[in-house]
Amino acid sequence: MTDIVEPIPIPPGPPVPNSADDEISFDLQYEAFLAWQKDVLQPGANVLAAATQQNAAATHELVQAAAQTLADTQQVKTQALAQTKAIADQAVADTNAIKNAAAQSASQAADSAAAAQAVANFVGPWSELSGAVAKGSTTYHAGRFWVSLQAIPSASAAEPGVSPAWAKTGGGIDSLAYDSRAQFRGRAGASGDLVLVDGLGLFAWETGSDEPDDDESCFAAAAGRWLLAAAHPDLLAAWSLPDDEIRESAFSRAAAGQLLRATASCALSSVAATAQARFPAFLPGALPGQAVLATPLAALDARLAVTARVSAADTVTVTLSNPSAAAASTIAAQWQITVFKES
Question: I want to staple 203 with a disulfide (CB 3.0 to 4.6 A). Which of 43, 84, 105, 226 is the partner?
Answer without folding.
Answer: 226
